[in-house]
Amino acid sequence: MKVKFWGVRGSIGSPIKPTQIKEKIEKILSIASPTDLQSPTSIRKFLDSLSFSASSSYGGNTTCLEIRDLENNLIIIDGGTGLRDLGNSMMASEFGKGKGKAHWVMTHTHWDHIQGIPFFVPLFIPGNQFEFYSAQEDVEARLRHQFVFTHFPVPFEGYLATKKFTHIPEGTKFDLGPHISALSKAVRHPGGGYSYRFTEKGKSIIFASDAEFNLDEMENVDSYISFFKNADILVFDTQYTFEESLQKIDWGHSSASIATDIALRAKVKKLVMFHHDPSYDDDKLDLVYLRALKYKEMFDPHGKLEIIMAYEGLEMEV
To answer: What is the DSSP letter of 280?
Structure first.
């Protein structure tokens, strides 16, 4: 399986500000030497030597991922603002000809997970086929409500691709094409939400965003540990710092330290920190990441858990 991240923010889109771009350029130029700027090759080498946030950005689009199976069949996860770029990239494939087919898994329907759907170009093209799956029973009605004329000028029927909606009850295994199976588990989130475990040839990717695990919840975490057990990749909600999470009980999100603790207990191979707070700039996200690494070293200094900070364009394969 391959997974690519098209949107990694939570709650609302947070594009980088012009002043922040200028600040990045100023920092880069302040530490560059004349030899670093002598040629395109030396410039690229210099930029590659910098920290991620110094020369790039984690991104400002909200939740959207793609998973590809061993035959390159497509599974879309949620439809936040990152979905627009995914859709544009798909237009160079069979989807641009009205011959594309994809499975689409919805965790829940808060705005930051559906706002990209009206701008997803492949949905306009007749012949394309999208089958939506969710453990929530009324996803079609919820999405249709987004296209009410008072909310958006194009009606749901104006999207001419074939759209099928399938309700899969929590805990019921289902197939997404010939190779990948999936299983859902409810997570604590206002209005309800679900995590999903995707498995192909014994390898597993778990998507568990918008999931609150506070100190009280950690006392009853065993069933979740079982669900996350031995995952190759666990994409987990780390919207807040631990200190902020204590002030935002029942807001539906977790912290990097709790995510790290769960990943260690579940013997996960790779933890991907996800659903970044819209108020956190790249520098603060760097600090959140470094604190997670230190937390991991404190409690499991010789463990094999790898911790990764999600960013737009991140690609991983298991």
So the answer is: -
